[in-house]
Amino acid sequence: VRIWIQKFGGTSVDTDEHRLMAAKRVADRVQDGYSVVVVVSAIGRAGAPYATDTLASELEAIDPIVPPRPREKDLMISCGEIISTVKMSHTLYTLGVDAISLTGGQAGIVTDYEFGNARILSIDPGYIRYSLEQGKTVVVTGFQGVTERPSPRMHGAITTLGRGGSDTTASALAVALGAEAVEIYTDVDGVKTADPKLVPEARTLPAISYQEVAEMAHQGARVVHPRAAEVAMNHSIPLWVRSTFEDSPGTLVQIPTSLPLPRTVDDLLVTAVTHSSDVVFVTFWMERTEDRAVIEQEIYRLMANAQINFYLLSFGRKSLAFAMERRFLRTLVELLDALVIPVVDGAGGPAAGRLYLFRVEGHLRTFQAQHELLSRTSPHFAVETVPVRIEENSRIVSIVAPRHRYVPGVMARVADLLGDAEVTIRQIANSDMSLSCLVHDSDTQRAARALHDGFRLHLPPEQRLASSQ
Amino acid sequence: MGRKGAARTEGFDRVAEETEKVPRVALERERGIIGITGEKGYYHVASMSGGDEDRAARERATFNALTQAGVSVTMIKYHAHSVSFVLRAVDCEKARRIISDLGLECRVEGPMGMAIIHASNMRELTGVMVTASEALMKVGAEIVQLGDSHRAVYILLPEPKLDEAVDAMREAFAVGGDTA
After folding, report:
1. How much is the ipTM here?
2. Continuous H helices in A99-194
3. Which of A124, A438, B66, B135 is the most exposed place for a label (fewest CB within 10 A)?
4. The pTM is what?
5. In this structure, are residues A428 and A437 in contact, taking their beta carbons and an 8 Å threshold?
6. Parts of chain B with a pLDDT under 70
7. What is the rounded distance in angstroms from the CA atom of residue A18 to the CA atom of residue A250?
8. β-strand B152-158 against B83-88: which pairing, if any?
9. pLDDT digits (tens, 9 = 90+) for A186-230
10. Interface-testing mutation among A109, A300, A320, with chain B (most B C-beta atoms within 10 A)
11. Cα angle B20, B25, B26; round to 5
12. Least CB-CB distance to B27: which of A121, A134, A304?
């Protein structure tokens, strides 16, 4: 049996017309002689009646002060995919395709207990195999699974897989069923060298490696989710990214082709330019260096307790800085506004030491009140100010270039290109696969265009290499 | 159960039995810290490019001159009045000379070691730096610079403390030296 997996995202099933177009893609593959397993996301994006966020907000609206418990929330939001799946199954039936819909649990997808971000542990594909053997096309809900049965007489709980859950469902099913390939259908015709909204000259990549596509997703591109790419990569399952609405070849995600190592930065083949969503850049200033490690540790602890992730970490002689997602800004300000970290000197004698008082830019009132109070009530402690600067309206623009570490001069080229485009680099980070620059939000498009043009991404790799000889 | 129902179950049981014979494959790997490794032979260099409006031009000149000389740099960081980076010991003197020739003050610290915390998806993990900094404080290893990607956190620290720092962090995270 030749098995083929097709996954359709929310925008591919958000209207009757789109769903019909998606269903015809399935029917065509069935016509080709494949046993097809279809994975679908919930219908539409935030705001649509059965979109994940809409369903979650139904629960949250019951009492805004009492957040829904993760298990209950997962059960609620899993309904979005169920509705979408059954509608797709019936649409296929109207086209003469004998289709059956299965929930994640019915499809045998077993996860851990991390509600909201569950990990697929195993898949028992018996029900799917049986249905395929009966000549049916199987439509499976994306983004969900079920925990293991706590006992033979109890069912597991429905879990959702978190970001990229439907992509991951498709890849994992492909592995469990030994499928020939996975097609990820979306509203663009493949993986692009940049977001075409920012860079109209962006080219569709005919092929890309699993690692590159994962890096692009990590750096903000809305392509295949890294979890899905990793599962497919570990089992060498080819992934195709294609448009539901256009007949174009799309992008094949596969094992990387071997290329000669670049000798100079001109030989370096940059894969794509990406940009992140809004981030804020936070800088702490610490005049006294002897307590620095303690202060830093407390900052890390506060961030961890508030579940705030940060990146682009940077140490100065008297500063610590990092970037974080904008959605955490309010929580961060609440945590830091007039925060006091005491550092007590050695044991014995009267308690004495330093009180580090945080002053968040633009939030002076609580700082002043706290400062006055501490100065009056703690005579044996010196009050030291830790100014905190928060720069909003930032984004991270990155080049994804797997071999950039092998050649000197990549940073120089990036600095030149952005400098010529009058873009100020606020901070930099690099990994094995990419080099990222923090820039002002208003510079994002200029930065993306400058890097796209400068590394000649509008040309296919062979033309770029030929012209650099 | 009627005949039709029995036949249906029979068919399902056969497929289920066949499926059972197929070995289970590991799907998504466990999330979290995978391992800690250490590398020696680095230097930390700061080029005092100033805080005025010509700073960007001076920094571009610095990077271009380093490129011309074939010097690779990593962990580049922008500060209020300087840009710092990390390079291999073999390039240290070359870089110092280049920066001085550009008329800029150059500060060099080293030798440095790089402790690397490897993770499956660092950006989804919270609390990594709390555990790491606690472990480093215990052995008196000062963090000189940090770098991060979605796969790793890179911690630059004085080379004599590297082995102790790696051991302390491996113990704190209960991992070994795996990288993937």
Report:
1. 0.81
2. 126-133, 165-177
3. A124
4. 0.86
5. yes
6. 1-9, 21-26
7. 18
8. unpaired
9. 999 999 999 999 999 999 999 999 989 988 988 888 888 888 998
10. A300
11. 140
12. A121
